[in-house]
Design a protein that fits this description.
174 residues, 0% strand
Length: 174
């Protein structure tokens, strides 16, 4: 005979639940958006990447890697003020993300020409990462600009000591 109406209704309901479940958990959706963003960045579609990373961050507002990638996307779009906010958020949610922290210091150094803020950021980085050659190189650059040659040379030598292949430190040292 025919199926009772309630069996059909339950089947439709169950099927709907199964299909909507395909969208996955928030964690899975977050990772999907993040990966789409990374892929878009690789294809040099920074605008699309920004949207994907923002979608991931709507699901998890403490997602440090998404903030970092968002910063990279904004940098490609030359939206540096937005980039530094994203990098700052990445660093706030993951203080071990030294690259994000260096981006913030570089923003102050190169975009704002604010040697004091840049130097403060770099000194904080070097407290946490005393061997970081990029931080020493940037600090050396600042000290040169402030005409503190001896301190600059010391910082650049530390950069070279922690990374003998550091071309930036070698070039800045002359």
């Amino acid at each position: 005979g025919l199926w009772p109406v309630w069996v059909i209704a339950l089947s439709v309901l169950f099927l709907g639940m199964v299909l909507s479940g395909c969208e996955g958990s928030p964690e899975k959706r977050k990772l999907t958006y993040y990966q789409k963003g990374v892929d878009a960045l690789k294809k040099n579609d920074a605008q699309a990447a920004v949207l994907e990373f923002k979608n991931a961050l709507e699901i998890d507002s403490a997602y440090a890697d998404a903030y970092y990638q968002l910063g990279l996307a904004y940098t490609k779009l030359q939206e540096f003020d937005k980039a530094v906010i994203a990098f700052g958020n990445a660093a706030a949610h993951d203080p071990k993300n030294v690259e994000a922290r260096l981006e913030v210091a570089n923003y102050y150094l190169f975009r704002q020409q604010d040697m004091t803020k840049a130097r403060q950021e770099l000194e904080k980085i070097l407290q946490d990462f005393p061997e970081n050659p990029k931080a020493y190189t940037a600090l050396g650059t600042i000290l040169y600009r402030l005409q503190k040659s001896d301190e600059a040379i010391t910082a650049l030598k530390k950069a070279l000591a922690s990374d003998p292949k550091s071309v930036d430190a070698a070039i800045t040292l002359g």
